[in-house]
Specification:
about 200 residues; mainly alpha; 5 helices; elongated
Length: about 200
């Protein structure tokens, strides 16, 4: 018999001996009971896609309302390609900010649950304090971003009003009569002028 076969035979004999010695052993005595385990809470599978979709929806509502606030009274301006794209892009950027706030809050709540379940180490308290600081920074950033967006659309409306006033004044000086309803340019010309105005601002 080779050394390898001898080892295998020896292990089999040892395994058989252990089984024979412990065949009457009640394993359940050594298992932890449910009441002895810490309350780990209900296990949930987090839906990140749902939070992302809700963030986008919320951001789009804010940007649509902002655009309506400053340009809602101007007929046909909502069809301007640049403005439509600009509002959509701004909404996407703002959505990322909202999503970041949601994730920071989720992370913070998870940390607090860990503390509640007994993880009271100095490192854990340091992590919690860092998360609190991050949440504050996120709030400030979100407020600053919204203020910047409001200023951008407010300033763009002012530029638009100045542009229209200049056009009206030029037409008066040139003796061009305006229509009775006050429209002085068609929709296509208006869009061209808006594009030029925005490009000059950028």
């Amino acid at each position: 018999m080779s050394k390898k076969e001898e080892k295998i035979s020896s292990l089999q004999e040892e395994f058989s001996r252990i089984q024979d010695e412990n065949k009457d052993l009640d394993v359940s005595k050594y298992l932890a009971k449910r009441e002895d385990l810490p309350d780990l809470g209900e296990i949930q599978i987090y839906d990140y896609d749902k939070d992302s979709d809700e963030s986008i929806e919320s951001a789009e509502e804010v940007l649509d309302a902002l655009f309506e606030l400053y340009f809602g009274d101007i007929e046909g301006i909502a069809q301007n390609k640049y403005l439509t794209k600009k509002v959509k892009e701004d909404a996407q950027v703002y959505a990322e900010t909202i999503f970041l706030q949601k994730m920071t809050r989720k992370n913070f709540l998870t940390q607090l649950k860990q503390v509640d379940n007994g993880d009271t180490s100095a490192r854990m308290h340091e992590v919690v304090n860092q998360s609190i600081s991050q949440i504050r920074d996120n709030i400030k950033f979100a407020q600053s971003q919204r203020t910047d967006l409001e200023k951008y659309y407010r300033d763009m409306r002012k530029d638009y009003d100045r542009m229209m006033e200049n056009i009206k004044q030029t037409r008066i000086e040139q003796g061009v009569e305006t229509k009775a309803d006050g429209k002085i340019v068609d929709a296509r010309s208006l869009n061209d002028m808006i594009d030029k105005m925005i490009k000059n601002r950028d």
